[in-house]
């Protein structure tokens, strides 16, 4: 393979990979200079001229002529007078010799290695371009087509045929994927794995919900409404705190849309995830009250030093505040950044305190409490708010174990 063939075949390959001309020339120069260094130890006194369009390559070596007895005769950029006169008979000491070097002079093996190096450099550059492209897209929604469904992840391809993945823990539990269908998600993170870019998408991230609001609600996209915070239990429930800096705009109404038109599009995308849109306020007590909606709160006591809030409700409002599986109170706590304790308000101003599950550690094994905590149940009342069948279904606990727990908790309030 001569220089013309090598450069033209590389140029075609680079164009297929959408490598721009200046980058292509730089890669060619780097490879040829590497060949020069291997053969001549240094490339400092060489000029490499490449015309990629025509496939032309010219390499020139420059050396200063010194006397045959000079101590500098072994320097890489010096040549003896006798050697110089073999090139041109009238050369004199002190003049510069310009000598053209041909790619054939490097040997067939060096040329083959150069071709392989060129291809590898383009592939490496392609990986780097892909990595940087998606690095800039982290937190943005993209769409991909499903091409393979695996046990640990779903593999998609983007519009350019690049592989992107949605791991199991970044999928909504209710998601079902079919080959050929389009899936939307945010770019969650991009990392290099064994030299290859790994693009990881997420449908469970709060940022995904935030970006969906930006797409469906023009006022959010334009910055007229700000999303202050998003908390989610993917596929189950979410709470979104919004604020408007324009008094004429109702942020909750704008996000929900006429007859729920805007929020419904988001709910469908998230497998019917129940979304509560809440008006943000600096007033902590009012914020907690809104976060616990739809429950109606009688009174609140906030302990800022310990980051806890005691909420008092009428008996018929307790289960609403806790929510199915403890989700409502769990998400409300995360939204406001305070641990919320629920108290049942009884007649004549008396209150009955809900009891933390950790208080039963001498009667209930710790792994059972951990399992209940896992599904958002951290108080006795939150567990008692669910039926035995519901607890068995939502946890990994045996029916007998659940019955024992319910009996212990019921005795506390008898």
From TrEMBL:
GO terms for molecular function: DNA-binding transcription factor activity; RNA binding. SMART domains: KH (SM00322), S1 (SM00316). It comes from the Bacteria. InterPro entries: KH_dom, KH_dom-like_a/b, KH_NusA_2nd, KH_sf_prok-type, NA-bd_OB-fold, NusA_N_sf, S1_domain, TF_NusA. GO terms for cellular component: cytosol. Monomer. Binds directly to the core enzyme of the DNA-dependent RNA polymerase and to nascent RNA. Belongs to the NusA family. This is Transcription termination/antitermination protein NusA.
């Amino acid at each position: 393979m001569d220089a013309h063939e090598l450069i033209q075949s590389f140029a075609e390959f680079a164009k297929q990979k959408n490598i721009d001309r200046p980058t292509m020339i730089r890669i060619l120069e780097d490879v040829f200079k590497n060949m020069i260094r291997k053969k001549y130890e240094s490339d400092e006194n060489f000029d490499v001229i490449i015309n990629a369009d025509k496939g032309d390559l010219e390499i020139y070596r420059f050396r200063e002529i010194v006397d045959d007895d000079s101590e500098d005769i072994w320097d890489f950029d010096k040549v003896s007078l006798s050697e110089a006169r073999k090139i041109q008979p009238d050369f004199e000491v002190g003049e510069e010799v310009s000598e053209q070097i041909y790619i054939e002079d490097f040997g067939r093996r060096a040329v083959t290695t150069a071709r392989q190096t060129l291809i590898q450099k383009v592939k490496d550059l392609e990986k780097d371009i892909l990595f940087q492209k998606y690095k800039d897209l982290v937190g943005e929604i993209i769409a991909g087509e499903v091409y393979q469904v695996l046990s640990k992840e779903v593999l998609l391809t983007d519009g350019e045929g690049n592989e992107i993945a949605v791991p199991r823990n970044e999928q909504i539990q209710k998601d079902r994927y079919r080959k050929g269908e389009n899936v939307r998600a945010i770019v969650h993170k991009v990392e290099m794995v064994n030299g290859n870019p790994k693009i990881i998408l997420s449908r469970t991230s709060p940022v995904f919900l935030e970006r969906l609001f930006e797409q469906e609600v023009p006022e959010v996209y334009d910055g007229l409404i700000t999303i202050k915070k998003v908390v989610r239990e993917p596929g189950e429930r979410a709470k979104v705190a919004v604020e408007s800096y324009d008094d004429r705009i109702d942020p909750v109404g704008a996000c929900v849309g006429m007859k729920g038109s805007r929020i419904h599009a988001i709910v469908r995308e998230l497998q019917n995830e129940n979304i509560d849109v809440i008006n943000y306020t600096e007033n902590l007590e009012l914020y907690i009250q809104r976060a616990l909606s739809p429950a109606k709160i009688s009174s609140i006591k906030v302990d800022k030093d310990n980051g806890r809030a005691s909420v008092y409700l009428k008996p018929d409002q307790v289960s609403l505040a806790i929510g199915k599986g403890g989700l409502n109170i769990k998400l409300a706590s995360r939204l406001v950044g305070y641990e919320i304790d629920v108290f049942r308000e009884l007649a004549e101003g008396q209150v009955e305190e809900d009891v933390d599950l950790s208080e039963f550690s001498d009667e209930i094994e710790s792994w059972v409490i951990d399992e209940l905590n896992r599904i958002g149940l951290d108080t006795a009342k939150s567990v008692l708010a669910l039926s035995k069948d519901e607890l068995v279904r939502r946890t990994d606990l045996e029916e007998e174990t659940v019955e024992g727990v319910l009996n212990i908790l019921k005795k506390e309030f008898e």
